[in-house]
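Researcher: Here's a chain I'd like modeled. Treat it as a single chain, no partners, no ligands.
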Amino acid sequence: MKKKGIIIGVIVAVIAIGAAASYSSSSTEYTNLDMGRTHGTVSTAMGSPILGDPDAPITIVEFGDYQCHACYNWFHTHKPAIYENYIATGKANLVFVDLAFLGRDSPIASQASYCAEDQGMYWEYHDLLYNSQESKIDGGWANSERLKAFAFSLGLDMELFESCLDSGKYSKRVQYNISEAKKHGARATPTFVIVGPDNQQEQFVGSQPYSTFKQIMDSMI
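Model: Modeled as a single isolated chain. Structure tokens:
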């Protein structure tokens, strides 16, 4: 009877240790996040770091996928002028919220961006993904090995990056962002929500030109 009690005690201890380890592992995902961060009606708590001045009067929320060709077009064709005239001047900032749904490599590419964020290189990695995008979705350019190669090219600590990516550390974070995008009716990428100083919002879909953003943002300032 005494032996049985010891065995049960050991089992309970093992379960308790496993539960604590599981909680510790999952909770690290949220350690450095502002869980109350919102822009307008959009929860951006799990999204990217803010690009630009956090106190800018306007926020551009982009729901995007790294394998999205229209997102690639917007990134290269229209974002530079928006950055130069609004983000760099403190009039607006930008948050990227993952709508990673176009292919099997989309969620892991988003997870990789947050593994890079762990080393202070989110936006550098984000930009590298859009500069490296290839035409075929799930063509291999954003698989695990290529994502690790991108990290290496940026000089990241590869032991830390690989451990983060292989563990799926940020899988729930990406799923949260996908749910938030869908909650706001985003069914295509890119979808944008522009939030003004009085929390007024404009939402639209597609690789819209600089002139569209300028018209909306100027009317909000």
